Amino acid sequence: MKSLRILLPVFFVGLIVAVIVYWPEISGALNPNHSCDICHSVHSAPGQALTNNAVVEDLCLSCHGAAGVSSLKAEIHTNTTGSAYPDFSMSCIDCHDPHDSMQNWLGGTNLKMIGLDQDGTDLAKISTPNSGIRDVVFESRGTDASEPSLYSFADGDEDTNGTYDGVCEVCHTQVDHHRNSTSGGDHTHYVGQTCIDCHPHNSNFHPSGGGSCKGCHDTAQGVRRAITSDFSLTSHHVAAGTVTDDDCGVCHYESVDGTNYHNNGVVDLRDPDDGTSSTLITFTDFSRNTSSDTLESWVTDVQDNFCMKCHDSDGATATNFSGDPLQPFSSGSVNVPNVYDRFNISNSYHHTIRGAGNNPYCVPSATNGSKVTMESPWNQDATHDQISCFDCHGANGHGNSNQRMLRYSIDLDAMEAGSYSQALGISIDSFCTICHKASVYVAAANPETAGSMFEFHPGGLSQHAASGSGGNELGCLGCHAGIVNEGGIADNGAGRGNIHGGNFTWPADSNSSGVISIRFMLGGWLNGWNYNASTGYCWGGTCGHGKNAKTYTR
Predict the structure, then answer these.
(1) Which residues 6+ apart lie within 8 Å of 547 measured at CB?
(2) Nearest 5 degrees, angle CA 29-CA 35-CA 41?
(3) Nearest-CA neighbor of 498 among 488, 485, 509?
(4) For the whole prediction, is pTM greater than 0.70?
(5) Which residues 6+ apart lie within 8 Å of 308 measured at CB?
(6) Is residue 148 reached through a cis peptide bond, with omega within 30 degrees of 0 on the bond before it?
(7) Residue pLDDT, tens place only, 399-419
(8) DSSP helix, strand, coil percent of the chain (3-state; round to 5)
């Protein structure tokens, strides 16, 4: 209620005058941190209400802007590309009373001068873009400020009074989170916390610049899962598993341009060699359907234009946000493994990532008696002659609960440390026979007729398989691309672990003629391997079978 108050008398130069003063019945003192002349001039002020600036935003930003005296920065709240709202703009004084913090409708006093007397009730309110004049309550920053979440930026109606009146949610009707009603959206998105940590004033309250990648992505929100915990899994990108916002920027263009790419409905992976958006790889839900012989477009896009541009001879050459771009995910002393060159189709052996394979035993052919030696859908009829990185490795590039980010659990660390067991060999066999038929290579009664080049794979014969009494403790890796070298050949280390591909040649001091080791034959038990026409020979080393193991001749 407004009223007139009359003060009598006032003496001035011998005259008695009545001074009539008009002010609100309820009136608090102006904010003691502001002097009137900071904003107003009595004479010749350019703005309405005698303000020092004709444009109210310029007046506010003279202190609260990048060029102002305050450390704070602010912008007008507007829409940007991708907003569900039509074009709109909200000024500073749509949310803030420049003179003082007002009482809200629940009886408390709002912080940060939030709310104005919009309708003569002397209560803090906001004139919203499309919901009329609404009460606003803002008494707490939130739980991350060590204060109660009740009456914070957006508390999700924690007091259960049926009103969403937080300073952020009071206006929203079309956003994904914290609308001012129960119609659509959700009220769980970081409820009760400080919204401007991720949605700062200086980016129009859109999620860019002021927020932390880790701060937002360390917990699940809606359909988005928690991310940062992935870097603490058994295998992971990022050294020591301690991910930083800078690490996110090595891969994600959202970290480079948060205004246009963050929260745009897709994941935007940037080119790790030039760091630009010119060859962005985008997808919504990355997955690999290994029951199909068709490689998904996003799988090959990510593999060829992203993974392989890091895992090549020069690593990620783009200038990243910190550290050496060659080593964004290593221990800092070991460069990213160059698997791109190992997949070169000109190599004598390679898995079929960059092109079709050269092993006639992986597709029905005259060489193997037209036998099917691969599980469906891999190379059943030559229609699936290429695979992807994600046929063997998990699709989550952040981390994996298995070693080497594999899709199957194998304790390769134990093997590398010299601790072998039949159970370990069986695990390796189980992983390899996801693609290569177990009925041909580890369980066939007669591997020769099943299509294998060698006749001594099964446990029931010479124990080349891991299963069975006295089984091979290295499984398939006893002969194929083993990560250990039990054969006593010094140069075998050059081919150690080259399961992706390579050109290892057995040296002259082995029981080999020194020919290129095709078919990945450089495993942990071997001393040599030779291939002559349609006959293959291997020398056993630890296996000790001498020069007597050979294939049947086709």
Answers:
(1) 511, 537, 539
(2) 115
(3) 485
(4) no
(5) 339, 340
(6) no
(7) 999 999 999 999 999 988 888
(8) 20, 15, 65
Alpha helical stretches, state H, 3-157: 36-39, 56-64
Phi, psi of 236 (to 5 degrees): -165, 155
Query: Which residues 6+ apart lie within 8 Å of 182 measured at CB?
Result: none
Name residues whose C-beta falls within 8 Å of residue 163's C-beta, 6 or more positions apart in sequence.
Answer: 135, 157
Report d(CA 89, CA 183) in Å as an integer: 23
Q: How far is CA 167 from CA 106, 108, 175, 287, 476, in A?
A: 14, 14, 14, 39, 63
What is the C-alpha separation between 15 and 109, in angstroms, rounded? 44
What is the rounded end-to-end Cα distance, in angstroms, of the chain? 105
Q: What is the pLDDT of residues 37-69, one digit of tens each?
A: 888 888 888 877 888 888 888 888 888 876 666
H or E segment at 536? strand 535-539
Q: How far apart are CA 399 and CA 482, in angstroms?
A: 24
Answer for the pair 350, 376: CB distance below 8 angstroms, yes or no. no
Specify whether the CB–CB gap between 518 and 531 falls below 8 A: yes
Q: What whole-number distance in Å separates Cα of residue 412 and Cα of residue 410?
A: 6
Classify residue 177 by its DSSP letter.
B
Give the Cα separation of 196 and 212 in Å (integer).
Answer: 11
CB 2 within 8 A of CB 27: no
Q: Among 240, 272, 235, which Cα is nearest to 253's? A: 272
| 480 three-state secondary structure | strand
d(CA 554, CA 552): 6
The 10s digit of each residue's pLDDT in 294-345 is 888 889 999 998 899 888 888 777 765 555 555 555 545 556 788 999 999 9
Measured from the Cβ of residue 285, the count of other Cβ atoms closer than 10 Å reads 9
Give the span between the Cα atoms of 483 and 522, in whole angstroms. 10
SS3 letters across 221-238: ECCECCCHHHHHCCEECC
- Report the C-alpha gap between 220 and 213 in whole angstroms: 13
What is the spatial distance between Cα 425 and Cα 301, in angstroms, rounded to a whole number? 34
C-alpha to C-alpha distance for 166 and 137, rounded to whole angstroms = 5
Q: Report residue 126's pLDDT band, with 50, 70 and 90 as the boundaries.
A: very high
Cα distance between residue 269 and residue 62, in whole Å:
38
* Residue boundaries of the structural domains of the chain: 2-59, 435-550
Residue 476, both tokens: 């398939």
- In eight-state DSSP terms, residue 349 is E
d(CA 78, CA 250): 30
132's CB contacts (< 8 A; 6+ apart) are: none
Task: Provide the 3-class DSSP secondary structure of residue 417.
Answer: coil
Identify the top-confidence range among 196-205, 246-255, 465-474.
246-255
Q: Is the peptide bond before 200 cis (omega within 30 degrees of 0)?
A: no
**With the CA atoms of 291, 294, 296 and 302 taken in that order, what torsion angle do they form, in degrees rounded to the nearest 10?**
100
